[in-house]
Amino acid sequence: MKLTKKKILVFLVLVAGVGIFAAFNLRGKGVVQYYTARVETGEIKQVVEATGTINAVITVQVGSQVSGTISRLYVDFNSHVKKGQLIAQIDPPLFEGALSQAKADLENARANLAVAIANTAKARASDVQTRADYDRNLGLSKQGVISQQALDVAKANADSAAAQVTAALAQEQQARAQLQQKQAAVQVAQTNLDYTSIHAPIDGTVVARNVDVGQTVAASLQAPTLFTIAQDLTKMQVYAKTDESDVGQIRSGQKVIFKVDAYPRETFTGTVSQVRMNSTVVQNVVTYDTIVDFNNPELKLFPGMTAYVSIPVATASSVLKVPNGALRYKPDLSPDEVRGLYQKYGIPEGAASRTQSMAATKTEAAPSGSRPQAAGARPGNAVGDAASRPDASQGPRYDTQVVWKQAADKSLEPVRIKTGITDHTFTEVVQTLNGDLQAGDDLVTGVAQGRTSGSAPRPGGPGAPRTR
């Protein structure tokens, strides 16, 4: 009895093994199944996408010209200020003492000038007297009344008095110069005292305060920043970092839409005001700042927020459009089979070689059953998107692609098309060169089952694929 059970068990195991082997063998030789997506008719908008930072149009950093201790603060974060308003005070006693000393020195210089003027007047009077004595002695000497020695003494006295006048005038000029120097010192001391009162240079909002009461600021090497004031937060700008390959499509006056993380469900609009020529290089990636002006009447957006910017650069309405996954798909066929299908539907040999050469320039591995991306293509773009971007100076440039349409009998039919702009999900069909392509046709975007092995389904295009 036990032996019979063992035989039955062995028999069941053999039957199960044969069944599993047959199932796998039949699955490997099953019919190929594809992921497909339909050709549609509609609008395509090609956009330049970038990330930027929101900034006020004018931002002023308020510093201090003098060193000292902050004694009072009159504003805080988010305070609204007017031009000339007192916003902070540095402890002034040291500067008041310096001003008093400078004023005292000025009064001393004025007194010295008065003494010098008096000495000049005295020297002039002495010069007049000695000159008169000399003239009298000169007349008497001619008459022989006085000796020559007395005449020489009178002349020496006259010359000495004239020299004293010159010296007095020099001292007076020196006293005047010292007076001007002391006046300048008073002005400097007064200016330093005035600088202890920090005033707002513009109307605006305080967006940063970097000091507290009791903190010492040192302005010996450079002016420390005490406050940052944004002039008008109702009119702001986005500094968007745009790739060098995209700046040729951007022009002043273009409308812009952008979003921020603070309001994920809201879309904001602005206008391009300029593309700055100053480049930024980060890890060999060259970007330029595109300035976008926008209104912020409700003060929802703050300086420093990250903005995700989209700049529409081209639009096509009521056009035939194919999913980008269909442009990337490459059938699992031998070269001879592909060549035969091309000849059957009138596609020239050059199209095959062009497609293969473009596939060779891929920058990253594409999923099996999908066409690889060309060098420089954005993720999700069709091969040749870079070549099909409209150029503002030369007009639109187009590329040719081969897509694979699934016929009613489940066979593949190649169609050669000329592509236009893309929104990274769909690409415009400018012209059908070889074959027939209409709205509603199914294009292959990926393979669900290989020809020789039962691999897992791998979608080849955007959106939920449909298995035929």
Describe the model.
Helix 2 (93-143) runs antiparallel to helix 3 (148-195). The protein has four domains: 30-44 and 317-467, no CATH class; 49-56 and 231-315, Elongation Factor Tu (Ef-tu), domain 3 (Beta Barrel); 68-91 and 197-229, OB fold (Dihydrolipoamide Acetyltransferase, E2P) (Beta Barrel); 93-195. It has helices spanning 2-28, 93-143, 148-195, 324-328, 335-344, 349-359, 385-388, and strands at residues 34-38, 40-56, 59-63, 68-73, 80-81, 86-90, 197-199, 204-209, 216-217, 225-230, 235-243, 255-260, 263-282, 285-295, 306-323, 399-406, 412-422, 426-434, 442-447, 466-467. Helix content is 33%, strand content 34%. It is built from seven helices and 20 strands. The longest helix is centred in the first third of the chain and has 51 residues, at 93-143. It has 468 residues and is an alpha+beta fold. A six-stranded antiparallel barrel has the order 2-11-14-13-12-15. Strands 3-10-8-5 form a four-stranded antiparallel beta sheet, with no helix packed on it.
In short:
With 468 residues, the chain is an alpha+beta fold.
- How large is the count of helical segments? 7
Mean pLDDT: 82
The shape, in one word, is elongated
Q: What sequence of helices (H) and strands (E) makes up the elements?
A: HEEEEEEHHEEEEEEEEEHHHHEEEEE
Task: Write down the Rg.
Answer: 46 Å
Tell how many strands the DSSP assignment holds: 20
Tell me the strand order in the biggest sheet.
2-11-14-13-12-15
Termini gap: 53 Å
Q: Mind describing the biggest β-sheet? A: 6 strands, antiparallel, barrel
Whole-number total of structural domains: 4
Please indicate the percent range of residues in DSSP E strands (runs of 2 or more): 25-35%
Low-confidence parts: 352-396, 450-468
Q: What is the helix content?
A: 25-40%
